[in-house]
Amino acid sequence: MTPEALTGHGQGCESLADKFGQLADLLQQARVDDQCFGPIGKELVNLFGIYMDSLQECQDLASKAQQFLVKTKQSLDDTVKDYAETEQQISEMLKKAGEGLGG
Fold it and tell me: What residue spans define the domains of the chain?
């Protein structure tokens, strides 16, 4: 895997994390209270509770997905940095070894 591929994957994770964050915000806006249902609200109390529970579960999952993707992006960035440092060290060692053979 190349550093460019890791960087691209990290950018994809970042984009998806933003989208899951937007979804969590949108689900927050979807919250209503029992007053929105008017007179039939009392009969729909059970459905309202199920709706709110489901909405909360979806919002929690979207937030967890966002956090996971942010951490994945950070890990990929760290991997790219480590890869670049390792490549630099190998290059320096080979250069020194070449100088030792030539001198």
Answer: 3-102
